[in-house]
Amino acid sequence: MVTTRISSCGILFPSMRYVLPLIILFVLFACGDENKKTTLPASLPANGQELQPWSENPNWWSWDGDRPALLIGGSDHEAPFLSHDWKQELNYLKKTGGNYVMTSLPAYVYGATPFQRSDSDSGFKLNSYNSQYWKKLNEYLSYASDLGIAVEIMVWDLEGINTTPPDSLIWMSTEASPRAFGMLEGEFMAGEHPFFQTVPEAMGYRPEYDLMLTLQKGFVDQLLRIALPYRNVIYNVQVPETTDIPWMVYWGRYIEVEAKEQGLRVNVNLGIVPPARINVARFNRRLISGEPVAYHRPKPNGNGMNGSAQTSIRGARIVERHLNFWDLRPAPEILLDEESVASAATDGNGNYLMYLPGAGAVNLSPDWEEQVPVRVTVVGYLGTQKSELLQPPYGDSFQLFTEEAKGGWMILEPQ
User: Fold this and answer.
1) In Å, what is the CA distance from 78 to each residue of 109, 249, 254?
2) Residues 95 and 178 in one domain
3) Of 5, 215, 228, 391, which sits most exposed with the smallest number of CB within 10 A?
4) Is 37 a member of any domain?
5) Which long-range contacts (CB under 8 A, 24 or more apart) does 50-53 make?
6) For residue 353, what is the domain's CATH number?
7) Environment class of 381 (CB within 10 Å of its CB; exposed 0-12, middle 13-18, buried 19+)
8) Is residue 365 part of a domain?
């Protein structure tokens, strides 16, 4: 565990001073005939609920369709189901307040591969599967389901296939197609790698890629055999470039159809999402901007599940005791400084949420028609909170400031 210190910030009102401790659109496919007999044993989370789009706004997730749920989490691993401490990490995540994790499906990591080795031990059988790899994924999904944690599976390890040996080399096994997928030399521009040109709609499609497409379908079928029974799964087929849209659409539809044949509902996440690094400030800004999912990526692209990540998750859950993130909309109009580092949001009912990413001050003017007592609550970096009741009369503008380098949340609630 990382030892952190208590943070503090202050609020300065006219003539008084209080010192207090301080989306990318998700496109979902929901399918399945409710009257059709399910041929796979659906595994519901421990609470008996199923992850699905929220009925009032499909950009948000829900466990029952009626009540939205903010999905937040993190992991120290790109493929946590293959790590030795995955169960401990999921327990930490649950205890911290997290309910969401992502995993890739790398072709090679920690000595594990989804494929069986060839008889010569110099390559891999891309149409035969390593039972231990998939057993670990099954156990991971089962345990996460029991904890009520959503798992988003990155169906294709885009970065690994594009650039990272041995992942790229495994998929380029001569068993796939020597003419198209031998040991490739040189580098490909984004969106031009032959692996992502196998679908008929792709600009670079060639008939000789059909054998690789068959192997790719086999890989996805194997994934679905493991994952479809679980109702806490999201299948991610997002791409980083517009040139990959045909690839994304093809596999989104493929997963949807395969699930429908089993009479099951499936969640598929589509979108054009360039790789990005996520720190605590970006994590919190995503929340206050209205994104339904925020995730701490493993190092070097994020904080993983270190102390900073855990405390940011706790802080978000404390904010939820006061305001629902799905009720908020950005409110930059209350910020008086043109280049403010703070972010502001409102629920439209006079309540405001502020986020200050670091030390400094911000001036704001809330849109209150009359002066009433205002509960001012500060949620610090460590998830600690303290509140004071601001009594009228007071001015029409306020200054919020923090001396804590890692900032915190500020909640204004007229009483």
Assistant:
1) 10, 24, 24
2) yes
3) 5
4) no
5) 50/231, 50/232, 50/265, 51/150, 51/231, 51/232, 51/233, 51/234, 51/267, 52/265, 52/267, 53/28, 53/267
6) 2.60.40
7) buried
8) yes
Going from the C-alpha of 73 to that of each of 176, 247, 303, 362, the distances in angstroms are 37, 28, 11, 29
pTM of the entire predicted model: 0.85
Q: Cα-flanking dihedrals φ and ψ of residue 103, to 5°?
A: -145, 140
Three-state DSSP at 100 gives strand
Give, in order, the Cα–Cα distances in Å from 119 to each of 124, 125, 149, 278, 368: 9, 9, 39, 43, 74
Task: Compute the Cα dihedral for 151, 152, 153, 159 and give only its sign.
Answer: negative
Specify the DSSP class assigned to residue 201: T
On whether both 229 and 96 belong to a single domain, the answer is: yes
The continuous run of DSSP H or E covering 309 comes out as: helix 307-320
Q: Which pLDDT band holds residue 127 (cuts at 50, 70, 90)?
A: confident
**DSSP conformation class of 113:** -
Give tens-digit pLDDT for 139-174: 999 999 999 999 999 999 887 777 655 555 677 665
- Amino acid identity of residue 145, one-letter, is S
Asked if omega into 80 is within 30° of 0 (cis), the reply is no
- The answer as to whether 288 is a domain residue is no
22 near 381, Cβ under 8 Å?
A: yes
| 141 and 229 inside one domain | yes
What is the CATH classification number for the domain harbouring 87? 3.20.20.80
Residue 87 to residue 174: CA distance in whole angstroms: 37
Tallying the residues shown for the chain, one arrives at 415
CA distance 358 to 115: 47
Domain total of the chain: 2
Identify the band that residue 47 occupies on the pLDDT scale cut at 50, 70 and 90. low
State which of 272, 293, 310 marks the end of a domain.
Answer: 272
| Structural domain that includes position 386 | 9-22+328-414
Whether residue 281 lies inside any domain: the answer is no
Q: Are residues 262 and 157 in the same domain?
A: yes
Distance CA 104, CA 97 (A): 22
Residues 6+ apart with CB under 8 A from 291: 23, 24
Contact 318, 308 (CB under 8 A): no
